[in-house]
Design brief:
8-stranded parallel β-barrel, 13 strands, TIM Barrel, 15 helices, two-stranded antiparallel sheet, globular, single chain, 446 residues, alpha/beta
Length: 446
């Protein structure tokens, strides 16, 4: 219990600093859920997290007002589970409870926020998010059962290519991959890698214990009101195994793809048990697998760093992406957002750190037009997204997360203008991507 409390405390501090194939056929009667399905989403906003307004003196009423002003049909990544959250702040020592409340760092805060948003806009789709790419080494928590996992149990969940006879040691694999995510010191000689000293590991999606853990993170958000779950890097293990083996049909690749489908099926099943259909999405890279891929309800894409900096889009690249998705995944809706990672060398890092506020506003206008024309919904970056450990331009001078209302960026009014043009029906055909593709995907019957 002590280690978990310490870990939660660290997570609150990090959050407040802003560092933070088969095709399955669904049958039966559709049960309760949002009346607006994914095919009808015109306006989507990125707001990560809807619970952290206390950090910037933004009330829950203010968040609801933003949702109403933007006429959002969908909140994307409204809650991102990167580290453990308590059920409520009272679970923490008293010295940490005030900070927990300020940061909105609990599942209780999530439930309250979703309820308030849904009261104002009942048909809005609230999309939470979970990572398939990391387990913390020192602790992990299953919010559904309360089970705490610590080293060496966490190491047991770490991906080992040797499991499939691939000649890469578990330690070297985890060391090299950990460096790319800043979980391991960049200067460390991997011959000296000690898993107990690493911050985290890339998990094995075929590991049943990790599957249970990943599903619990999604299920807890569904319990608190989420209508959709986006899984970051769901297909990354399959892609890594393909690169290591050079064979898309290698058992290591197929096992990873089947495990990804198992996760998707698990979330769908859990949603049905709660009386609603829960949408599941991940990256468009699922379409890269020709014979076998998980049955996703939506996919996401992102502009590149180069496209952000030049404010010009690679027509060939985007034609290939959309063409491949349509060829292999049919009418699945596509959502574009400005992605991020650990450093400023990311699309959001470039957008926030290299472009002036006026250039950011112009990029949003160009991106919206470009994506809408191709039947892709551009997710407006209202709040959230990590700008990078080396970011110098911070929201409100203090926070590493992007905020469109911050004086450093001032893009909110442009977002509202673009969103309202779609939401008010002034550009209905355009906003629905009617020029190219109508996003005709409807929720399966459950």
């Amino acid at each position: 219990m002590g280690r978990w409390v310490v870990a939660i405390a660290v997570c609150i501090i990090v959050a407040s600093a802003g560092i933070a194939y088969g095709v399955w056929v669904h049958r039966g009667e559709r049960t309760e859920g949002p009346d607006v399905n994914l095919s009808r989403v015109r306006v989507a906003i990125l707001y990560e997290r809807v619970t952290d307004g206390g950090l910037i003196n933004r009330s829950l009423d203010d968040v609801v007002r933003i949702v109403e002003e933007t006429k959002a049909d969908m909140i994307f990544r409204g809650f991102w589970r990167w580290s453990s959250f308590p059920d409520d702040c009272s679970q923490l020592p008293k010295r940490l409870q005030a900070r927990c409340e300020l940061a909105g760092y609990s599942y209780e805060h999530l439930e309250e926020a979703v309820a308030a948003i849904k009261e104002a806009k009942p048909d809005l789709i609230f999309c939470g998010a979970v990572p398939a790419q990391k387990v913390w080494s020192k602790h992990e928590r299953n919010p559904e059962t309360g089970e705490i996992l610590e080293y060496p149990d966490t190491w047991e969940m770490a991906l080992d290519p040797g499991k499939w006879g691939i000649s890469v040691s578990k330690e070297r694999f985890q060391c090299e991959l950990g460096k790319t995510h800043l979980w391991v010191d960049q200067e460390l000689n991997c011959a000296e890698y000690d898993p107990e000293e690493a911050d985290g590991y890339f998990p094995d999606i075929t590991n049943e214990k990790f599957q249970e853990l990943l599903l619990s993170w999604a299920e807890e958000q569904i319990d608190r009101g989420a209508d959709a779950i986006w899984i970051d890097m769901l297909l990354t293990q399959a892609r890594i195994m393909e690169r290591l083996t050079g064979d898309q049909n290698h058992p290591a690749v197929l096992d990873a793809l089947r495990a990804a489908q198992k996760i998707v099926d698990g979330i769908h099943s859990y949603g049905r048990s709660k009386g609603k259909y829960v949408y599941v999405g991940s990256w468009w890279s699922a379409a890269k697998f020709s014979n076998y891929r998980p049955d996703l309800d939506f996919v996401t894409v992102s502009p590149t760093v180069e496209e952000v900096l030049s404010m010009e889009f690679n027509e060939t690249r985007w034609s290939e992406i959309v063409g491949l998705v349509r060829e292999r995944m049919g009418d699945v809706p596509i959502f574009a957002f400005i992605d991020w990672a650990s450093t400023t060398y990311t699309p959001l890092g470039a957008f926030s750190q290299k472009l002036t506020p006026e250039q950011q506003r112009e990029f949003l206008r160009r991106a919206d037009a470009f994506f809408r024309f191709r039947g892709i919904v551009f997710v407006y970056p209202v709040h959230g997204g990590y700008m990078g450990v080396d970011a110098a331009v911070l929201s409100y001078g203090s926070y590493g997360f992007y905020d469109s209302l911050a004086p450093e960026f001032q893009t909110y009014e442009t977002i509202v203008g673009l969103a309202q043009s779609c939401g008010e029906g002034l550009m209905v055909a355009w906003c629905r991507g009617g020029a190219i593709h109508g996003l005709r995907r409807h929720p399966p019957q459950v």
